[in-house]
Design a protein that fits this description.
Layout lengths: L7 H10 L2 E5 L8 H11 L3 E5 L7 E2 L2 E2 L13 E4 L6 H8 L8 E4 L6 H9 L3 E3 L4 H8 L12 E2 L18 E2 L7 H12 L1
Helix pairs in contact: 1-5, 3-4
Amino acid sequence: MNHDTYADAYIREILNGVKTIAMVGASPVNVRPSYFAFKYLSERGYDMIPVNPGHVGKNLVGKPFVGSLADIGRPIDMIDIFRSSQHIMPVVDEALKLSPLPKVIWMQLGARDDAAAAKAEAAGIKVVMNRCPKIEYGRLSSEIAWMGVNSRTLSARRAPMPVKGMRLSLNRMSVGGGDTAASDRAAKNKTDTV
């Protein structure tokens, strides 16, 4: 699979299909990006599990931290890795020991390990790298448009303001170019005008 760009349908299928998400590297510090992503996804109805051995005994928005994926003791649909690239392979190796296997391994913005992705995909696990599920959810639901960001989605109706535990529809139509990186489009447009 090409991990440089993802079709909206691929991301949409993942976010619609998972319920339980283990976030490896979650932080209880409320100014950390992992805190915001965890809280956001939890408020959208996902069953979130914070994984961080340095915070066992603490809670993150009411969810107790566990020290490792093996400590969860129940099936996990998706593992969201909030660690730098050099720490991804050990997380994937740990994930491959789980029974049942997770459906998805998602690596956060700035995190990429092609060898780990190939290993997970060989085991039948879908992989997303260098993306944030919080951002993708907000973009595909058009919720991000409330803040003035162009979500590249079209709908005659504005997305409803979610209440705690409410999942928004991710089935809004994306306009042309939705599957292409913005920088690629900008470079193409620059050469078209020269």
